[in-house]
Write a structure and sequence with these properties.
It is built from four helices and eight strands. It is α+β, with helices and mostly antiparallel strands.
C-alpha cells in the first residue's frame, strides 16, 4: 500500500458534525450528479457553461473521486471564508460513492475518526484553504505540531 496522502477539507459546521456522526466526508454542488464515469467531456463542459460548477470545483470533484484513496488522512476545517478552525482529523476507509437521495452530501467517502479536539483549533496557515486541497507532508506535520501545542 502506498503512503497516505494528506488532504485539507473546508466545510460547514453542521456538515462537519454530520461527517463525524455518519462516518463520512463529502462534497456537493447543485446540478452535479453522478458524473464520475457517467458524463462525457461535453456534458461536463455543459455543467461549467450552465454555471453549475467552475473548473476549480470540477477539480475538487475529480480529486475527491479519483485522487483521494483509502488510507489517506483528512483534516476537516470549519469557519468563515477566510478562517480555518481544525474540527477533526479522519482517515478515509471507503471508495467514492454517490447517492441522490435528497440528503447532503451526495458525493461521499466513508471515514473513521482519528482525532476530535474538544473545540475547534484556529490554524491561520490554512485560512485560504478551499473546499478540498492536497497537502504536503510538511504542511501536515506543521499542522499536527500546532494541534499538539494547542492541547498542552
Amino acid at each position: 500500500m502506498d503512503d497516505p496522502k494528506f488532504w485539507g477539507m473546508k466545510t460547514f459546521k453542521s456538515w462537519a458534525k454530520d461527517f463525524i456522526n455518519n462516518k463520512i466526508i463529502g462534497i456537493d454542488q447543485p446540478g452535479v450528479n453522478d458524473f464520475i464515469g457517467n458524463c462525457s467531456d461535453d456534458e461536463i463542459n455543459d455543467l461549467i457553461t450552465d454555471g453549475y460548477m467552475s473548473r476549480a470545483i470540477l477539480r475538487n470533484f475529480k480529486q475527491f473521486a479519483y485522487d483521494m484513496k483509502i488510507g489517506d488522512l483528512v483534516v476537516i476545517g470549519v469557519g468563515q471564508m477566510t478562517k480555518f478552525n481544525i474540527h477533526s482529523i479522519v482517515k478515509v476507509v471507503g471508495e467514492y460513492e454517490h447517492k441522490n437521495v435528497g440528503g447532503h452530501p451526495r458525493h461521499y467517502r466513508r471515514i473513521e475518526l482519528v482525532d476530535l479536539p474538544s473545540s475547534p483549533i484556529p490554524y491561520e496557515e490554512f485560512n485560504r484553504l478551499s473546499r478540498l486541497e492536497y497537502l504536503s507532508k510538511y504542511d501536515w506535520t506543521e499542522m499536527m505540531n500546532h494541534i499538539r501545542q494547542s492541547n498542552i
